[in-house]
Amino acid sequence: MTSLILVTGGTGTLGRLVVPRLREAGAKVRVLSRQARAADGDVEFVRGDLDTGAGIEAAVAGAEVIVHCAGAQKGDGDKARTLVRAASGAGAPHLVNISVVGAGRVPQDSGLDRAMFGYFGSKLAAEQVIAGSGLPWTTLRATQFHELWLTVARAMAKLPVIPVATGTRFQPVDGGEVAARLAELALGSPAGLAPDIAGPRIYPMADLVRSYLRAAGKRRPLLPMRLPGKAAAAVRAGANLAPERAVGLITWEQFLAAQVSA
User: Fold this and answer.
1) How far apart are CA 172 and CA 251, in angstroms?
2) What's the pLDDT tens digit per position in 128-143?
3) What is the rounded CA–CA span in Å between residue 67 and residue 65?
4) Whole-number Å distance between alpha carbons of 180 and 197
5) Rounded to the nearest 5 degrees, what angle is found at the Cα of 85, between the Cα atoms of 79 and 86?
6) Structural domain of residue 212, as residue ranges?
7) What is the mean pLDDT of the chain?
8) How far apart are CA 9 and CA 129, in angstroms?
9) What domain count does the chain have?
10) For labelling alongside 57, which of 10, 35, 121, 216 has CA 20 to 30 A away?
11) Exposed e or buried b per residue across 173-202, where buried means at least 16 C-beta atoms within 10 angstroms of its C-beta
12) How many CA atoms lie within 13 A of 25 on its CB side?
């Protein structure tokens, strides 16, 4: 395996897990970074910015596959356009994109919807740009990562009282399992919209928070709150879940135990 694979967001939560899996498979890996970095072993770093387009043409040059892990709460459609424009001028690389379960099912009708759940709309916009690019593509939708929920729970635990959205449920999945699947897709043929990947269990938001508090040895009162808007209603109805794709093996409790003992 000697294909050159570019990973955008290769130093982020998911990308840093994808890179070693690609290397283990024998791929040559280049990482797009907003900051200048020295090579790490045989992993090449190229400086570029998907928001401005600076350095992106050099980053995609020679890449046969691009694994697009870079993302934010908003603006992912614009980032995807910048990437597609550069990739289209560099041949026809296979674009492998990470998205979120529920993209297209969580409404973005109002400012309130976008303020609270704009991540779903941002990911859908990137999906649409990539699917319409004319390039070979694969998109994998995943539920929220354990790693993300850990960050959220840690931040919430700093509050004297923790607000929790009533009726909302989540199906967190291990980032390493998503990375393994994304690497597998990158090493394969373009698949279009791939089957979702979701965690093994569905939890009410309050249970996720309580589990963290127990694992961390903290006590905080929880304040139930009903979120307004169409997006919140869709999430309460399970738009962000994929029970039929509960293929992840590592539970939230197992993940927490490993984090606490580390």
Assistant:
1) 8
2) 999 999 999 999 999 9
3) 7
4) 11
5) 95
6) 4-261
7) 95
8) 18
9) 1
10) 121
11) bbbbbbbebbbebbbeeeeeebebbbbbeb
12) 21
Q: Tell the residue number behind the tokens 């539920």, with chain if given.
A: 143
Give the domain CATH number at 77.
3.40.50.720
Residue indicated by tokens 């090449």: 44
Give per-residue pLDDT as tens, 148-177: 999 999 999 999 999 999 999 999 999 999
Q: What is the 3-state secondary structure (H, E, C) of the chain?
A: CCCEEEEECCCCCCHHHHHHHHHHCCCEEEEEECCCCCCECCEEEEECCCCCCCCHHHHHCCCCEEEECCCCCCCHHHHHHHHHHHHHCCCCCEEEEEEECCCCCCCCCCHHHHHHHHHHHHHHHHHHHHHCCCCCEEEEEECCEHHHHHHHHHHHCCCCCEEEECCCEECCECHHHHHHHHHHHHCCCCCEECCCECCCCCEEHHHHHHHHHHHHCCCCCEEEECCCCHHHHHHHCCCCCCHHHCCCCCCHHHHHHHHHHC
If you search the block for the tokens 């927490």, which residue do you land on? 256
C-alpha to C-alpha distance for 72 and 34, rounded to whole angstroms = 14
What is the rounded distance in angstroms from the CA atom of residue 94 to the CA atom of residue 68? 10
Question: Residue type at 140?
Answer: L
Distance of CA 170 to the CA centre of its chain: 15
